[in-house]
Amino acid sequence: MSADRGPQPTSTQPTSTQPTSTRPTAPRAANARTSTPRPTGARPTSAKPATRRRPGLDTPREVRRSLPTPNVDPEAFGRWSETFARYMGTARFIVWMTVFVAAWLAWNTFAPSSVQFDPRSLNYTLLTLILSMQASYAAPLILLAQNRQADRDRVSFEQDRQRAERALADTEFLAREMSALRIALRDVATRDFVRSELRDLLEELTADSRQEDHSDGSTSSRDLPKPSE
Q1: Are 55 and 61 in contact (CB under 8 A)?
Q2: Distances, alpha carbon 155 to alpha carbons 32, 80, 169, in Å
Q3: Domain residue extents for the chain
Q4: Do 81 and 73 contact (CB within 8 A), yes or no?
Q5: Are 122 and 133 in contact (CB under 8 A)?
Q6: Cα–Cα dist 216/210, whole Å
């Protein structure tokens, strides 16, 4: 049966052949680079994102206030703290504090239990709390007063040092002026010096006058005529 079929026709459909590009790829890339020149000073689009530079250990950090703080006049608060610290250092405060504690202890010890507000059985908890609170507030106030006093002492010491420097400079100036006057007075004629000079001059004039008188007497005796015999 295969012999009766005859020769099968061969497929004459032309095969589509795509033309191969003979243009080089390297010049194309070069032309693409030269066709779009990059402007000078422009940043490339593929730059890395800028990283935040961490400050060094020698750079102080910025103070960030997350909570609102009350606006208090430091000068007025400092004066009040000085007044409080000055009052706490007086005998009046100690006496009144002793009277208060003694009355508190006596009332809560000997008074009836129904009227006691800080009984002894609780070890005077309220009094301990009050004294602790007073100490916790008194210590910073006293330190603040001491700091203000230290600042005033520093300013006073600085002013004293400046006054001492000015006084030393004035003293040195006066010492130099006195030494200059002493040096200048060495060349100035004193009273004794003038007297001695005048005395010497008078003696010289007296000697000259005597010498002139003696010379005049000798010449006059020569000029007189001799007596005739």
Answers
A1: yes
A2: 77, 21, 21
A3: 74-185
A4: no
A5: no
A6: 10
pLDDT band at residue 47 under the 50/70/90 scheme = low
CA distance 128 to 105: 11
pTM comes to 0.44
Q: Would you say 120 and 179 are in contact if contact means Cβ atoms under 8 Å apart? A: no
Query: What value, to the nearest 5°, has the Cα angle with vertex 37 and ends 36 and 40?
Result: 145
Reading the block at residue 113, the tokens are 């239990």
Residues 6+ apart with CB under 8 A from 115: none
Name the region of 19 (left: φ>0; alpha: ψ -120 to 50; beta: rest).
beta
SS (H, E, C) the chain: CCCCCCCCCCCCCCCCCCCCCCCCHHHHHHHHHHHCCCCCCCCCCCCCCCCCCCCCCCCCCCCCCCCCCCCCCHHHHHHHHHHHHHHHCCHHHHHHHHHHHHHHHHHHHHCCCCCCCCCHHHCCHHHHHHHHHHHHHHHHHHHHHHHHHHHHHHHHHHHHHHHHHHHHHHHHHHHHHHHHHHHHHCCCCCHHHHHHHHHHHHHHHHHHHHHHHHHHHHHHHHHCCCCCC
Return the pLDDT at 128. Answer: 92
